[in-house]
Design goal:
The structure is a single chain. This protein is mainly β and 137 residues long. The protein has a domain of 79 residues: Jelly Rolls, CATH 2.60.120. Helix content is 3%, strand content 42%. Strand 6 and strand 7 form a beta hairpin.
Length: 137
Amino acid sequence: MAEVISITKDGTTYALFFRKEISSGGAKFFTKDEDAFQVGVLERPAGYEVQPHQHPERPTEVRTVSEFLYIASGRVQVAVLDEQWTELGSAELSAGDFLLFLRGGHKLTMLEDTRMIEVKQGPFLGDSGAKIFQPKL
């Protein structure tokens, strides 16, 4: 299976799934420069140093919240949905895999007891202000 799976619609990326075996050959970012959230893989030898640095403040506008999930343990079936709740693609992820949701919706089904690490932009507005749930049919 591919190390990176891109879920797209009409040339727009909705999500990226990354397998734990992914290699960067040093440092590689897999998101586009214009994406609101950036994901890269860095592989450095022992003794390599990242020089002390800071990131300058800059005004940004968050139009949609991106989510990064790292599967620490377990297995999960992940479906990516467009804005009309149509499934665009899905994959089963397991320990060490990770993913990035950039837009649209998603559904997760735990296939085993699962531990995930989630990173997303803040501030958190509570479920009622931060999520739109699919209407019940």
